[in-house]
Amino acid sequence: MNLQFVADGLLLGAMIGLGAIGVTLTYSILRFANFAHGEFISWGAYMTVALTGAIGFLGGSHAPIGPFSFGFGLIAAGLIAMILTGLLAVALDALLFKHLRRHGSAIIMVIASFGAAMALRSLLEFGFTSQPVYFSRAIQFALPLGLGVRVTPDQLAMLALTLMLVTIMHLVMTRTTIGRAMRAVSENPSLSQIVGIDVDKVFRATWLIGGALACAAGIMVGITVQIRPYMGFDLLLPLFSAAILGGIGSVPGAVLGGLIVGLAESAAVHVVGAEFRAAIAFLILIVVLLVRPTGLFGVKD
């Protein structure tokens, strides 16, 4: 029995799940579908590439850590890039979405996010060209885990990173003041403002967290596959499918939805061929909207 597609699906689902957290938070708190979110994934990956090169130029070490293809230079670059990508998301809100929120129309925000996505993608192509780039071209030997499953050390590290970030997000949302404020604003923005919650601060925190997690997803894609300007755009439909499947506003639901979408796509490649992979996320989205529009952990308004 060959269950390699399960390992591949879990890795893909982890990437989708991290990105879907930002989607579900944006939708539940800011009340619109942000189609520019996929570009934060791409920008985060490219920022990490640029910062890794800068750290190496300044004398930082690129030597791999143990069996992994990356070293402390990439880890440092990734942490800085997560902050910068979060600030990019905050800046985009300040320059564009904050002014549009005054009109109170979600459709205006959605259309604006389409335009922002194309602009951000074009800037990446202008700055880095459309050719793929890599964090490392080193060849890793996969480790056999049994039942035909083989994984590389990098893939195990990425799954561990996902578990760590999801745990941190759970603690932030349940144990911190800003997390409780975010949940309150998600339930009722007007009432939250009346009781003294700084809604604008919650909005900024939502963009910052969503952008940082999108960057982490981009780094995962870059380490395990490659980096392209369209990488975030290609993940956009799976991100929304995962967010809706898990239930809008639910962080654990977004991660679980991402794992389900990732496993479904990998199973489709294994069973019917790679040409149908892109349709799986769309089919999942349609089925969820027809059968359970609130998702696995969502609640009716």
Number of helices: 11
Biggest sheet, open or closed, and with what strands and sense? 2 strands, antiparallel
Domain tally:
1
Whole-angstrom Rg:
19 Å
CATH topology: ABC transporter involved in vitamin B12 uptake, BtuC
| Gap from first CA to last CA | 45 Å
Shape: globular
Helix content: over 70%
| CATH class placement | Mainly Alpha
- Under the CATH scheme, the architecture is Orthogonal Bundle
Low-pLDDT runs of 5+ residues are none
Strand content: under 5%
Give the helices and strands as they follow along the chain. HHHHEEHHHHHHH
Spatial strand order of the main sheet: 1-2
- The residue-averaged pLDDT reads 88
Structural class, please? mainly alpha
Word description of this protein:
The chain is mainly α. The chain has one domain (4-291): ABC transporter involved in vitamin B12 uptake, BtuC, CATH 1.10.3470. The protein has helices at 4-30, 37-57, 72-100, 106-128, 153-175, 177-187, 189-194, 199-224, 231-246, 251-271, 277-291, and strands at 143-146, 149-151. A two-stranded antiparallel ribbon has the order 1-2. Helix 2 (37-57) crosses helix 9 (231-246), helix 3 (72-100) packs antiparallel against helix 4 (106-128) and helix 5 crosses helix 6 (177-187). The relative contact order is 0.21. The model has no long low-confidence stretch (mean pLDDT 88).
